[in-house]
Specification:
- This is BTB/POZ domain-containing protein.
- The chain has 556 residues and is mainly α.
- The chain is 50% helix and 6% strand.
- It contains 20 helices and seven strands.
- It has helices at residues 158-164, 166-182, 212-221, 227-234, 236-249, 252-263, 269-281, 286-296, 302-317, 322-336, 351-370, 390-410, 415-422, 425-433, 436-454, 462-485, 492-503, 508-525, 533-545, 547-555; strands at 40-44, 61-63, 140-146, 151-156, 191-192, 195-196, 202-209.
- A five-stranded mixed sheet has the order 2-1-4-3-7. A two-stranded antiparallel ribbon has the order 5-6.
């Protein structure tokens, strides 16, 4: 065959994997180079030929500059234009040619995104036959303009876009109708005497693109036979971004593939929040998204959630393993804390539930102290705890009460617990007859209450403070020596400071009685009693040195 004879490329659409074709800056050296898998991509920025950050490694050919001898007919080799215009990619979208343009203005940017609440279950995808043009030609140019100022140009095939995206199918159909009515003879490219004539290129502008790389990657997935296999390399975080773009352009095959992939992989908390936000803006097929929604939202009622929190508290107070109990206490306290990142706008655990748990622990303490009396020498002990010493069981219940008290203080609900603890008359009588090795555990609860009041974390009525001191100030003086030796995390200096500060909040007459009690105890036992000297000096100045000023005020 003569060398001047041109080889005729096939005109039929490939039935297998669709191909993207690239435009070359110079004529290819062999016919095998006429096809590539992905389209030609031009990147345009405001600062020059520097490329915009794109998606991860891709097979797209990124072109920053085009030779002055550019190809007029994208996708096929055509005579070289000697016109020196358009030497930079920046001018490619503005180059005027006989091709009719379909430019979507900025005000119509919403046409490229499915309306909020769109249901993708009813979108089977347009008929590929509705697109005009051969599958081997680049007859659509997408001009993507990012919010950050970058610009990405994709040259692709209308048949592929129409077959996968309802949004692009409608725009291309509108372009074809306008083009056929206006100028059908000058805009169709046919072979004529060995030369190629110019063919219409549908130009679509997509403004305000959030992520150019994600949009390009979504278009690439339209040419993949197995989208799920491609998503395995992309990852869940990127897949959520692709799902949002696919939902916006109504790329139904991409939406279904992304949903199936996301349902099968674990998510981070950031990815979970992105999915929640996405599902609030788009509606998907319930059959496809049912399993994902089951992972995102709980169908249980508020009452069941409240019961769950109550069950967790009761399980911890009844736990017998010390290591497991301490680990679970830290976990549940963090979940129920007001400052927790897991806090939700819903009811979880109320004050009554916590107070009921406290009363249960107090009842167990009374039973345990009864074992120390001669009348109950046999003991009322559960079978599984008969082998454990009494001090260990008492310490466990005190730890439970202090843990519940921390939760109440964090939620500012501890006022009623002060009254509850001050009215433990039976426990106070048992405290008098119990061994110091055991009874000092009760003063650990009183110490935490005094510290909370002295550091202004707990605010309660004057009657409640007076009742607490009247009941537990004496036992605190008796047990202070054991508290110093067995601190168990208790800060003794903070206890002494808070005890004195809280005592000064009482009426002066009651302060006189309590300070006299402390003075006599401290004179006998010394460091076995708390050092309230600083608070005693303040009380002395208020009571005697300023007495003349007080009388003057009362006389006036």
């Amino acid at each position: 065959m003569d060398g001047s004879t041109r080889r005729k490329p096939p005109a039929s659409l490939h039935r297998g994997r669709r191909s993207w074709c690239c435009s070359f800056a110079v004529p290819p050296s062999s016919p095998e180079n006429l096809k590539a898998r992905y389209p030609k991509t031009d990147i345009i920025t405001k600062t020059g030929p520097k490329s915009f950050p794109n998606s991860p490694k891709s097979a797209l050919n990124i072109v920053n500059r085009i030779d002055p001898r550019r190809i007029l007919s994208p996708g096929r080799v055509s005579p070289i234009d000697s016109d020196p215009t358009g030497d930079s990619v920046r001018h490619v979208p503005q180059t005027q040619s006989p091709a009719a343009d379909l430019t979507v203005p900025r005000s119509r940017s919403g046409s490229f995104r499915a309306p909020n609440g769109s249901n993708f279950a009813n979108f089977p995808g347009p008929d590929p036959g509705s697109a005009s043009g051969d599958g081997d030609l680049f007859d659509v140019r997408l001009n993507l303009k990012g919010k950050s100022g970058g610009c990405l140009v994709l040259e692709t095939n209308s048949a592929v876009l129409c077959a996968n995206s309802a949004v692009f199918a409608g725009l291309i159909e509108e372009f074809n109708n306008n083009n056929a009515a206006a100028n059908n003879n000058n805009n169709n490219c046919k072979r004529n005497g060995g030369f190629l004539e110019k063919r219409n290129v549908c130009r679509i502008e997509v403004p305000e693109v959030e992520n150019l790389g994600v949009f390009k990657q979504t278009i690439e997935l339209m040419f993949e036979d197995n989208i799920t296999k491609k998503l395995l390399k992309i990852g869940a975080h990127r897949c959520i971004d692709i799902l949002e773009v696919s939902a916006g352009i109504m790329f139904n095959k991409g939406v279904i593939s992304c949903l199936k992939y996301l349902e099968a992989v674990p998510w981070t908390e950031e990815e979970e929040e992105k999915l929640r936000s996405l599902f609030m803006r788009f509606r998907f097929d319930d059959a496809t998204t049912g399993e994902i929604l089951a992972r995102l939202y709980s169908r249980d009622s508020v009452d069941s959630q409240q019961n769950l929190a109550r069950q967790l508290v009761w399980s911890i107070t009844g736990c017998t393993d010390a290591n497991a109990r301490n680990e679970l206490k830290s976990l549940v306290k963090g979940l129920l804390s007001r400052s927790s990142v897991y806090e939700k706008d819903q009811r979880d655990l109320n004050k009554e539930d916590l107070l009921v748990a406290c009363q249960s622990c107090l009842g167990l303490l009374v039973n345990l102290f009864d074992e120390t009396s001669e009348d109950n020498a046999q003991g009322k002990v559960a079978k599984e705890e008969k082998g454990k010493p009494l001090i260990e069981r008492v310490s466990r219940q005190v730890d439970n009460i202090n843990w519940l008290l921390e939760i109440l203080l964090d939620r500012q609900m501890a006022e009623e617990f002060v009254d509850l603890w001050a009215n433990q008359g039976k426990l106070l009588k048992l405290h008098e007859n119990a061994s110091p090795l055991v009874r000092y555990e009760l003063s650990r609860v009183s110490a935490n209450l005094f510290i909370a009041m002295g550091t202004r974390k707990l605010h309660c009525r004057s009657e409640a403070r007076s009742g607490l001191f009247q009941s537990w100030f004496g036992p605190m003086l008796s047990d202070f020596g054991w508290l110093q030796r067995c601190r168990k995390g208790l800060d003794i200096r903070s206890l002494e400071e808070a005890l004195g500060q809280t005592l000064l909040t009482l009426p002066l007459k009651q302060q006189y009685l309590l300070f006299m009690e402390w003075f006599h105890c401290f004179s006998k036992h010394g460091t076995e009693c708390p050092n309230l000297s600083k608070a005693f000096q303040i009380w002395w100045r208020r009571s005697f040195l300023r007495g003349s000023e007080t009388n003057a005020v009362e006389s006036r």
